[in-house]
Amino acid sequence: MSKSAIDTGILLETGTNELEILEFSINEIRKEGEEPVPNFFGINVAKVMQVIETPNLDPPESAPHPSFMGTIPLRDLILPVLDLSVWLELNMPKTERDIVIVTEFSKSVTGFLVSGVTEIHRVGWGEVIPPSNIISSNTDAIVGLIDKGDYFVQLLDLETILTQFEPKSDKDVKISDVRYNVLVADDSATIRAMIKQNLTEANFNPIITNNGDEALRTIRGFRDKAEAAGKDITEFVDIVISDIEMPLMDGFSLTKNIKDDPLLHKLPVILYSSIITKELKHKGDSVGANRQISKPDLNTIPEIAINLIEGGID
């Protein structure tokens, strides 16, 4: 399956709170001697380059992580392949029918070994159930579930997995002279902790929420308090920083709600994602996002936020 074969329809109308996911399976042997049972997962179609047959790699002894299987050539690239079942602690039997989903996001190309691809679904973020409501997971890479009736599709945040392989940034963080209040929305506990640390070190007061729906309810609460007290919204929050892909409400819909509100529209909004590409950037522009950055550049958020707050926005 090539990128051209799965491109149709991924550029959904902005602000509709929708996305398309590629559903795939990882078979699991739960009891010795019994047939493997499929577990179903999903990732954003926009992150998928293509699907290829298993390269039948033997993991090197010096692997940086047990899930690392080695590297393979693809076009003009040499890309790492990770065994997703190892990361998720699933006992997946290896077969000749296994496949590798080749993804491109966070400025990197990576292959993920799985049992097979099922189909593509268009879903609304409002249909994505936070995992804490259904399951107790051993990884925060599972950010939501989609109820298909007789089974659940577990939505994966592959960026959380790749952060374990990325070197820590040693770039100095710009420190604000004023302690600004910043509302942050992200469904990944790993990314939330990273952003909170960066903002705190830069002298911000981070207000952390778990998704766009919670963020919107929080900011509307600040708006109502400000209006009741005859104060400006900036007495409560100075800027909003949000991931794009989140259960219940995505970052595009959150931004649109903020920018359509006459009392909130002055607030600058920074959106970030692993898929900020030229093709997708127009979505953030159309809902009024003031800046859009890629997740590998999260360490730049404090400086961008200071410049937006102090320099004003259009």
UniProtKB/TrEMBL annotation:
Residue ranges of domain Response regulatory in the record: 181-310
Phosphoprotein recorded as keyword: yes
Lineage, uppermost ranks: Bacteria, Pseudomonadati, Thermodesulfobacteriota, Desulfovibrionia, Desulfovibrionales
Domain CheW-like: 18-167
Keywords: Phosphoprotein
Positions carrying 4-aspartylphosphate: D243
The protein's name in its UniProt record: Chemotaxis protein CheV
InterPro entries recorded: Chemotax_regulator_CheV (IPR024181), CheW-like_dom_sf (IPR036061), CheW-lke_dom (IPR002545), CheY-like_superfamily (IPR011006), Sig_transdc_resp-reg_receiver (IPR001789)
PANTHER family referenced in this protein's UniProt entry, alphabetically: CHEMOTAXIS PROTEIN CHEV
Species in which this protein is naturally found: Pseudodesulfovibrio nedwellii
Keyword Zinc-finger listed: no
Lineage top rank: taxon: Bacteria
